[in-house]
Amino acid sequence: MDICVFGAGSLGSLIGGLLADTHEVTLVGRDPHVGVVDTKGLCLSGAVDRHVSPTGRTAVPQAADLGVVTVKSFDTSVAARELATADLDAVLSLQNGMGNEAALATRLDSPVLAGTCTYGARLRDPGHVECSGLGEVVLGAREGGESALADRVGTAFDDGGLATTVSTEMPRRLWEKLTVNAGINAATALARVPNGALTDDPGASVTRRAAREAARVARTQGVSVDADEAAKQAVAVADATARNRSSMLQDIEAGRRTEIAAINGYVVEHASQPVPVNETLTALVRTWEAEHGHLES
Ligand SMILES: NC(=O)C1=CN([C@@H]2O[C@H](COP(=O)(O)OP(=O)(O)OC[C@H]3O[C@@H](n4cnc5c(N)ncnc54)[C@H](OP(=O)(O)O)[C@@H]3O)[C@@H](O)[C@H]2O)C=CC1
Ligand SMILES: CC(C)(CO)C(=O)C(=O)O
Q1: Does domain 2-168 sit in CATH 3.30.70.1170?
Q2: Of 111, 30, 13, 33, which Cα lies nearest the Cα of 66?
């Protein structure tokens, strides 16, 4: 399969690198990273030890069988505009946050698959990405149901050695991931703590309440997510990733714009009843962003 990974930073470079021994992979990202990849190859380290040779470019190729989108959620619309110039048989988002697939589908003619990813990745140097944890990819039709296309992409990912599950219930899967991120990311970012700090009160109380609120909003959107189960799952993931610094904590520590709008902000935007914990977390992260020049958020 000819695969174009669009947004080859941390996660995109890891996923593209893992697939590069089995498929024709092009990483579209920024120099110097993609330039080094193109000339010297890509080194995978951490939980995976491998050197692979995908193509590296700064612009989308003319055509590919599959476009995999791994830009941050706030770059999805721009990514869609660039991907629209390519002839793609299918597009798959592996991004966190909600709304990415819809943003892609409204701008692209290609069918858009939804996906979640729990592999951990960190770009260490140009040409070098660290796998900070093995996980799995779950993918499927973005509105749920059976999909021959999803089956084909799932088989290609399986063949490439990625732990992959094809799901007929992607709306629920995406919301379940959102309830976890709503419970963990902003709280760890604001408190400057690793995920494990949220396994006991007082932190766990914030995590549970934010996840419950997100689950209730999911139900108003017609997606059946149990609030109590979501609360338990968010704390369980915080425990399972106790040593992780969440992606939002990493963004804040690096002074980067965060994905708050697609996580807690999305919960607030789609709530028909007050969601005070998500409102507070969103406002505080946005306060930090405003102080650090990310006013566009
Ligand atoms: N890292 C991880 O372990 C995981 C990440 N995720 C999710 O995956 C997504 C990506 O995360 P992550 O890989 O960490 O983020 P990164 O910022 O490391 O990677 C995104 C890359 O895309 C580049 N990019 C953005 N727009 C363009 C463009 N138009 N053309 C070329 N390159 C572009 C960015 O460059 P620039 O910054 O210069 O714009 C950046 O290098 C997020 O939604 C994240 O939440 C999910 C699971 C795990
Ligand atoms: C699950 C969690 C919170 C793991 O750190 C994550 O997805 C993230 O950091 O964005």
Answers
A1: no
A2: 111
- The pick from 247, 249, 259, 266 for probing ligand 1's pocket by mutation, whose C-beta has the most ligand atoms within 8 angstroms, reads 247
Which atom of ligand 1 has the smallest separation from the CA of 33? 41
Neighbouring C-beta atoms of residue 170, cutoff 10 Å: 24
Q: Quick check: 6 pLDDT over 60?
A: yes
Cα of 45 from ligand 2 centre, angstroms: 20
Q: Which CATH class is domain 171-291?
A: mainly alpha
**226 Cβ closer than 6 Å to some ligand 1 atom:** no
Q: Which amino acid is at 281?
A: L
- Secondary structure letter of residue 198 according to DSSP: G
For the stretch 228-241, pLDDT in tens is 999 999 999 999 99
Angle (nearest 5°) at CA 124 between 123 and 129: 50
146 SS3 class: coil
Q: Is 72 a catalytic residue?
A: no
Q: Model-level pTM?
A: 0.96
